[in-house]
Write a structure and sequence with these properties.
Oligomer: single chain
Number of domains: 2
Number of strands: 15
Mean pLDDT: 90
Amino acid sequence: MNRRQWLAAAGLAGSQILNGRALAAVQSAERGSAPLKITDVRTILTAPARIRLVVVKVLTSEPGLYGLGCATFTQRARVVETAIDRFLKPFLIGKDPTRIEDTWQSAFVSSYWRNGPVLNNAISGVDMALWDILGKRAGLPLYQLLGGKAREAVDTYRHASGSSFGEVAAAVQKFKDQGYRYVRAQVAVPGSATYGTSGTRGDQAVPANQRTQVWEPAAYVRLVPRLFEHLRKTVGEELELLHDIHERVPPILAIQLAKDLEPYRLFFLEDPFAPEDVGYFRHLRAQTSTPIAMGELFNNTNEWLPLVSDRLIDFIRVHLSQVGGLTMARKMAALCEFFRVRTAWHGPGDVSPVGHAANVHLDLVVPNFGIQEAKEFNQGEQDVFPGCPILRDGYYHVTDKPGLGIDLDERLASRFPIQDDPSFDMFWGNVRRRDGTIVTP
């Protein structure tokens, strides 16, 4: 074979190889570009940990391809269910599930009146499910679609509480021994139903059917600095400690508490003010160096944007399904990065395992990650939601399965029906002073 014949043969072989690759690419593209439509939207209500969870399942025209999202507004689960089933489902059927941004924007304005917790949670459930579908169709875990890992695992904090300083210190030490580097500490105020603890009912000058939650802020503000003084003496200086005011005190007392806690170097102090009192943040910032986290009750951009752009908080603490899901949260995280505000997404028991998975995937990719509130899933939750995020040595881990990496067993979920309990629905509305005056919960 001469040089010309060799080159011709090599060219033919190369052409065949390239043609084979091109054919495979075309076939893959044809599969990927086949019309994909939303065919059904289901709302699953379940309570494997005795907390009402709302999960959205979006099904598509591709057999076996579906996505899951968290829409949990536990105090109004039935209302969110109605919003999804009666209004969003008909709106979504037939749409392309890969057009996530367009779907979010159109759903957001679909009712004209907007920015409320019910519709936001409904949209969030759908939004997370669409991102889950996109990841599954691409064969990639969601964190890869969002930009790839910025860290290998997600640092978390847990909740320690007790009726005495000794009980709290023991609970904190337990988490420290398990490898946690961050712990939130709450202590009961004698005679008061203290947030984050078991508390007591006490006496009230109000009718018996309202005698549910007694709260006096002054005693709490005096007690909490003493708790952290005790904790620093018993568990040391290296452990990062957090505390949640939960908006339960008058703004001026919250400012005083933040100042009094400075010697104990908190990682952050959470929710010092109610959303209605955010005007006090400028006064707070001017008077204390205690880091501040805020946002659990926020619904819309106008609530958090000024706090970030004016550098009045250190951690953004929103509930992902309360603000519109992953689509909104990733934009929020990107903006916060430029103002040196770190993320600390809300993550207690009234976030479903699907919502926790969404939190963790986002935590893995954002450069301005701060900390993640975590919970340990019981066996019922793990059975109903195979693929729950894994806690190990104080870190959250997710699998490399496509999408969110978590599933839902609807048959098992039906074994844990939610309880329609009116007393729970109105629970937060019965936090009162001893004279009967209502206070923010």
